[in-house]
Amino acid sequence: MKKNLQLEKIRESTTVALSDRILALKASGRKIIPLHVGDPDFETPRAIIDKATEALRHGETHYTSSRGDRDLKLGAAEKYLREVGISYDPEREIQVTHGGIHAYYLALQSILNPGDEVLIPDPSWATHSNMVTLLRGRIKRVSAPAEKSFIPDIESWAAALTSKTRALVVNYPSNPTGVYPSKEYLQKLQNFAAENNLWVVSDEVYQNLYYGEKPTSLGAFPEAKERTILINSFSKSYAMTGWRVGYLMAPKSIIKNAVKASQNSITCVAPFIQKAAAFALSDAGVQKEAETIRAAYARRRTLVMRIASEYSKSPLKLMPPQGAFYFFLDLRFLARTSLQISEQILETEGVALVPGSAFGKEGEGFVRMTIAASDEDIEAGIRAIFEWVEEQ
Fold first, then answer.
1. What distance, in Å, lies between the first and last C-alpha atoms of the chain?
2. pLDDT score of 16
3. For residue 4, how many other CB atoms are within 10 A of its CB?
């Protein structure tokens, strides 16, 4: 019997496969320090849960608009106008989605035809590439090595360009590296996209998790709106990963396509979840709690760097992330694959990490460590990693 050969080209998610192995180790009685999953260890703010419960009790349990709750779309529009200075029409330029991955799916589904090429930095989150393959597009990886702070220079973008290139994808602050470029660089990138008639797909799910100057949205430039597709979700900033709710912001021609793709993939997002998400964007108390979560990540980032300073003679040197909640640890000096390194640290130290090769060729020799974990686990984990390195 024939089957979808396109899925044969996509590897099983490294992080999901790793999680399965960790569960097996835990079942055998091993204590594992979980520094691998990009899932906030905080509870969803209670007020958001209460709003969802209230909506359930008021009968918000049936089909709703496939385009999304008006209050939620209005809240998203107000957020971007307030924080970024971009004005979006809630009815024609915003689509509510079943999380950030679904928003990305709708974005690509709306612009790609089979064989179209998409430029994606290397390293980057695996789903950015896998989704292109799933939709029968072609991936062109753009090198973003550590020596260039994991940001591709404009010349590298240009070198990857062909007559079949239709879009470029960026994710700042980045998963897995935590970097984001200057406003000047992003302006040059938008100029490059304009000169080559490319769509810009900007995954901004970590937009509000930063530790210095706030990162600039890819849509925040003159004349950029008509070629830029923005993706955001509630998962990271509000500790709502399991709620699966996000949104897509794009020109109305893209949203027109996205609505059709969404209607024929999920119908709609659960109405009680949308009511809770709209509340999250508008409630001052929730915003204050989200700021507290961001401050906790900043404190944990400092904790890791303080511990690293105690191992000043170690060949393992840490680059503090500018945003998101990951450290990308450089272990290339060991001359082993990142998969071998992560497996050895898991087996001998009980610390779960993600091999950098999961994010592309330029991630080889690195491992990703999350700080979306308890202070105790973070401290125990980073010390165990440094001590493991000393034994090699």
1. 50
2. 65
3. 8
CA 344, CA 340: separation in Å to the nearest integer? 6
Q: Which of 150, 163, 161 shows the shortest CA–CA distance to 121?
A: 150
Domain that includes residue 96, residue range: 60-283
Compute the residue count for the chain: 392
pTM exceeds cut of 0.90: yes
pLDDT of 57-113, one tens digit each? 999 999 999 999 999 999 999 999 999 999 999 999 999 999 999 999 999 999 999
Q: Do 169 and 277 share a domain, yes or no?
A: yes
CB 386 within 8 A of CB 308: yes
Q: Is the pLDDT of residue 24 over 90?
A: no
Q: Are 64 and 191 members of one domain? A: yes
Mean pLDDT, residues 335-354: 94
pLDDT in tens, 316-326: 989 899 999 99
Question: Do 24 and 65 have their domain in common?
Answer: no
Based on the fold, state whether residues 73 and 157 are members of the same structural domain: yes
Bridge-partner residues for 143, per DSSP?
A: 122
Contact indicator for 361, 141 with CB cutoff of 8 Å: yes
Same domain, 215 and 364: no
Tokens of 227: 């070629």
- Note whether 70 and 194 are same-domain residues: yes
In the three-class reduction of DSSP (H, G, I as helix; E, B as strand; rest coil), residue 90 is classed as coil
Beta strands 117-122 and 326-330 are: unpaired
249-271: per-residue pLDDT in tens?
Answer: 999 999 999 999 999 999 999 99
Q: Do residue 80 and residue 177 come from a single domain?
A: yes
Domain boundary among 265, 283, 301: 283
Which among 93, 85, 106 is positioned nearest to 183, based on CA atoms?
Answer: 85
pLDDT score of 4 = 79
Rounded to the nearest 10 degrees, how much is the dihedral formed by the CA atoms of 191, 195, 196, 197?
90
Find the CATH number of the domain harbouring 258. 3.40.640.10
**Do 146 and 68 belong to one domain?**
yes
Q: C-alpha distances in angstroms, 108 versus 13, 67, 103, 255?
A: 20, 17, 9, 11
